[in-house]
Amino acid sequence: MLNQVYRLVAARQFEVQTVAEEVTANDIVVRPRYLSVCHADQRYFTGSRPQATLRQKLPMALIHEGVGEVVNDPKGEFKPGTLVAMIPNTPSETDPIIKENYLPTSKFRSSGFDGFMQEFVVLRRDRVIEVPADFDHEMSAFIEMVSVGVHGLTALADTMDADKTTIGIWGDGNLGYITATLVKQLFPESQLMIFGRHQSKLDYFSFADKTYLVDDIPADLKVSQAVECTGGRGSEQAIAQIIQHIKPMGTAILMGVSEDPVGIDTRSVLAEGLTLRGTSRSGRVDFEKALDILTKSPVTRERLQNLVGLTRKVSTIQDIIDFFEGDLTNYWGKAVMEWDV
Ligand SMILES: NC(=O)C1=CN([C@@H]2O[C@H](COP(=O)(O)OP(=O)(O)OC[C@H]3O[C@@H](n4cnc5c(N)ncnc54)[C@H](OP(=O)(O)O)[C@@H]3O)[C@@H](O)[C@H]2O)C=CC1
Ligand SMILES: O=C(CO)[C@H](O)[C@H](O)COP(=O)(O)O
Ligand SMILES: [Zn+2]
After folding, report:
1. Interface predicted TM-score (ipTM)
2. Which atom of ligand 1 is nearest to the CA of 233?
3. CATH 3.40.50.720 region(s) of the chain?
4. 243-268: per-residue pLDDT in tens?
5. What is the per-residue pLDDT for 53?
6. 39 is in an annotated binding site
7. Do the record's keywords include Zinc (predicted)?
8. Residue 198 marked in a binding site
């Protein structure tokens, strides 16, 4: 099958390349419909990764968050037109201990392996998962990010001590918002506190028990456990505040990506017996759990619909460039393209 792949070839430059794809009986052919932009894609689009990384990974189709319609299933298990979430991580082995998203042999789309900006995406059968027909399509585009939140909170549940009194989330953007909606489902008895930089973003977290601007946190405030969802240079300040405000022996899950190493006050980490645990990406089990939560909880779906920020139909390369540029200046929410190439 000949496929048109929309690859980033250099910062802010895309090219359509024609690729011959083999479709085996174990594959599903999907036409992408709604695609959502992640910070990781923007770091490639703007050329802000190190030059050596860009040389190694480009040309490459961006985007690892999206839903599409099944076009062809050689085994007939999925009907044509079925809406599916596409799982960007593609493992080639299993391990009894290391999860699929941490195996060095796994390929992750839009990080060295073509993402979803293609006419058709050929995925292994276990890399698609049906999305209920009544889900909002634009919200469904970022189910991958919901699965990342599920993965992070699963790691928190596996690691933390018995104190569930208060969970603090640092970061008032997309990942913070998604993780906050999931805390309400996965830790319903906990008090949820959000720590952010913008009052107008914190106002969206109306379901949280408390919100704080990070320059106005009461000195004696303590959280039982914490999740860092900031990234960039903001991570350093967020981790420092988490160390200051978490109870002894608490766990902090770190999810924000920083290009440069950030400083951490290890003396306090040791003195208070804290656990800092990083989580990255997600696997099929996290997608399944995310879809289960969304299916059972209409209120979570409604909250996540409030995170749909910029939406536009894209049909040409200029539309794609304009869309990515638009996302860079978009203040609140996820940017979702209706993929109409
Ligand atoms: N681990 C993983 O698998 C994944 C990681 N990520 C990463 O998560 C990070 C966040 O992504 P996303 O939510 O989309 O980004 P956003 O820009 O939407 O959100 C980050 C928010 O955190 C705020 N912030 C910055 N510093 C602090 C601080 N010290 N304390 C509290 N809030 C702060 C930012 O404010 P301001 O804009 O003023 O700086 C911004 O509002 C990125 O680094 C992204 O790459 C994303 C997906 C998956
Ligand atoms: O966004 C993510 C998962 O949803 C990850 O942060 C992203 O995959 C990291 O990739 P890269 O190393 O290419 O920045
Ligand atoms: Zn991502």
Report:
1. 0.99
2. 26
3. 148-278
4. 999 999 999 999 999 999 999 999 99
5. 98
6. no
7. yes
8. no
Q: Which residues line ligand 1 (CB under 6 A)?
A: 38-40, 145, 148, 170-176, 195-198, 201, 214, 229-232, 234, 237-238, 255-257, 279-281
The per-residue pLDDT for range 165-186, each reduced to its tens digit, is 999 999 999 999 999 999 999 9
* Residue 296 exposure: Cα atoms within 13 Å on the Cβ side: 8
DSSP secondary structure of 137-162: HHHHTTHHHHHHHHHHHHHHHHHS-S
Alpha-carbon gap, residue 301 to 143, rounded angstroms = 10
Which of these, 38, 50, 63, 65, lies nearest to 11 by C-alpha position? 50
Structure token digits, residue 205? 């977290």
For 54-70, what is the mean pLDDT? 98
* Residue pair 117/62 in contact by the 8 Å Cβ criterion: yes
Omega within 30 of 0 (cis) for the link into 59:
yes
Q: Ligand 3 mean position to 267 CA, how many Å?
A: 32
- Is 229 assigned to a binding site? no
